[in-house]
Design a protein that fits this description.
Elements: H1 20-35, E1 42-50, E2 56-67, E3 70-78, H2 87-99, E4 104-108, H3 115-122, E5 126-133, E6 142-164, E7 178-182, E8 185-187, H4 189-198, E9 207-220, E10 227-248, E11 250-254, E12 260-262, H5 272-277, E13 281-283, H6 286-293, E14 306-308
Parallel strand pairs: 3-4, 4-5, 6-14
Antiparallel strand pairs: 1-2, 2-3, 5-11, 6-10, 7-8, 7-9, 9-10, 10-13, 11-12
Helix pairs in contact: 2-3
Length: 317
């Protein structure tokens, strides 16, 4: 849908108003951010390491961690060139990688690599990645994220097969004065619905569902010591709110195997008005949400991204 985001014309490569230095720093920041998601890894940017030759080597991004009993050092070179990286860069990087005892080398360039560079990298422990980001001006892609939040719209109490505890007892017609005895707790009708939700007695999807409590003791607020045994069912109508937001794509792609990783910062809010205020588009049906997302589903590894809310209701007083 054209009204999901304001139209913004992307700059063509080579026409960026940023200086080469700023664009180089930006690329390093993007690479650092994309690499920082590795569990237990330490990621540093723009540091110097003295190599085995005694020469101080500048490292754009360094990733250090461990795998089982092995220490791993990954050296990343970010090349913000206005052309493809050639074989000479790969060969020079291999020398640096060996000098600083790197286990794996990575070269990142927004414009890609020549055939010679690709063959040279394949001959050693070097992987080649292209970085894509709106700030680099080499992608206009947005990734649609769906947020799905079910909630209880209404509920209705159904009781049957009553049996007195002894003595005369009349249950009030006002259901707000009923108490439901569950696991040594005395719950009112609002707390009963919350109990059904929190204990997964109903599926948390749109529709009319029945929470079957079986036989319970039910009493009045004024006389909790006098009760009936009743079969209790709660008819609950669950509705769902649907939201969609387009996030600017930022990702690296391995040109040798096509795999990659994305960077997306998701913002979620507890109130509907705050969701809409921060750019989430609201929908009443899943079909409408999917129709709005479909034109933007251009990244196979990020297609159909959904966040389904699972939460515990706070027990009413």
């Amino acid at each position: 849908m054209s009204d999901l985001i304001p139209f913004k014309k992307s700059l063509k490569l080579g026409e960026s108003k940023q200086s080469t230095t700023k664009k180089g720093d930006l690329l390093e920041e993007i690479v650092e951010s994309l690499c920082s998601g590795y569990n237990g890894a330490k990621v540093e940017r723009n540091i110097f390491i003295k190599g085995k030759t005694g020469i101080s080597r500048q490292i754009d991004v360094l990733i250090e961690g461990s795998y089982k009993s092995f220490d791993i050092r990954i050296v990343v070179e970010a090349k913000n060139y206005n052309k493809k990286v050639d074989i000479e860069i790969v060969e020079a990087f291999r020398t640096k990688l060996s000098d600083v005892s790197g286990n794996l080398g990575v070269i990142v360039c927004p414009l890609g690599f020549t055939e010679g560079a690709i063959k040279a990298a394949a001959a050693g422990d070097i992987q080649l990645f292209q970085a894509f980001d709106h700030s680099l001006g080499n992608t206009a892609q947005f990734i649609p994220f769906r947020y799905i939040e079910p909630y209880i719209q209404s509920y209705q109490i159904r009781i049957s097969h009553s049996d007195s505890s002894g003595g005369r007892f009349e249950i009030p017609s006002d259901t707000s004065k009923w108490l439901f005895h569950i696991n040594n707790n005395h719950l009112n009708k609002e707390q009963l619905a919350t109990y059904a939700w929190n204990n997964n007695l109903i599926p948390k999807v749109s529709g009319e569902h029945t929470a079957d409590f079986g036989v319970l003791k039910i009493s009045a607020v004024e006389t909790p010591q006098k009760f009936f045994y009743m079969e209790l069912k709660l008819n609950i109508i669950v509705m769902t709110d649907y939201y969609l937001k387009l996030f600017p794509a930022s990702f690296m792609k391995n040109i040798q195997n096509g795999k990659g990783n994305h960077r997306v910062a998701i913002d979620l809010f507890s109130k509907k008005e705050d969701m809409i205020k921060h750019g989430w588009k609201y929908f009443t049906t899943e079909e409408d949400m999917e129709s709005a997302a479909l034109p933007h589903e251009t990244s196979p590894d990020m297609r159909g991204m959904k966040i389904i809310s699972e939460y515990t209701l706070t027990e009413p007083e």
